[in-house]
Design brief:
The chain has helices at about 60-70, 135-140; strands at about 5, 10-15, 20-25, 30-35, 45, 50, 75-85, 90-100, 115-120. Strand 3 (about 20-25) and strand 4 form a beta hairpin. It has one domain (about 5-140): Nucleoside Triphosphate Pyrophosphohydrolase. The protein is globular. It has about 140 residues and is mainly β. Strands 3, 4, 5, 6, 7, 8 and 9 form a 7-stranded mixed beta sheet that branches. The chain has a two-stranded antiparallel sheet with strand order 1-2. Bound molecules: 8-OXO-2'-deoxyguanosine-5'-triphosphate. Pfam families: NUDIX. It is an enzyme of class 3 (hydrolase). This is 8-oxo-dGTP diphosphatase. It comes from Micromonospora echinofusca.
Length: about 140
């Protein structure tokens, strides 16, 4: 039988659901997009920095950890961007949060093949991972032109 629990929003969520968090890091009206370097099926496609939330880890802690590991930056996590996006036949969910860089840190592509700061007009200039489409749409009005 499927085990369910109430999450903060009061909705039922599967206990075995894998949560993947992403950071929409915004600076001067642009968002940081990152090109995946692996695996081969998605290499060259663009995403928000982030990754899987580890057991017992909060979503914001996971984001801070992933941004440090992938980009060598410290971030402040803000509001959610867009909705929960179900992936992998419903076994995982992508949640993206707005974020800003702290202490003047400059992102370095430690795990990605490229980084780009995109304005609202440039959001469609890269090929995002398919699950990111509704997030990118929600992000557009948040980037000043
Ligand atoms: N980080 C990130 N992952 C995304 C996005 N969109 C999207 O579909 N994904 C998918 C790609 C992967 O299947 C999964 C994230 O897994 P990952 O392999 O990057 O996670 P991780 O850093 O924890 O990796 P690992 O420790 O397991 O190697 O979520 C996005 O915008 N950001």
């Amino acid at each position: 039988m499927r085990t369910e629990r109430a999450n903060g929003g009061g909705q039922a969520e599967r206990r075995d659901l894998r949560v993947i968090v992403g950071a929409a890091i915004i600076r001067d009206g642009r968002v940081l997009a990152c090109a995946r370097s692996a695996p081969p099926e998605v290499a060259g496609m663009w995403e928000f920095p982030g990754g899987k939330v580890e057991p017992g880890e909060s979503e914001t802690a996971a984001l801070a950890r992933e941004c440090a590991e992938e980009l060598a930056v410290r971030v402040e996590i803000g509001d959610r961007v867009g909705r929960n996006v179900r992936m992998a036949h419903g076994r995982s969910v992508l949640k993206v949060y707005a974020a800003r860089l702290l202490h003047g840190d400059q992102p370095k592509a430690l795990e990605h093949s490229a980084l780009r700061w995109l304005s609202a007009d440039e959001l469609d200039s890269v090929t995002w991972l398919p699950a990111d489409a509704p997030i990118v749409a929600a992000l557009r009005p948040m980037l000043s032109t």
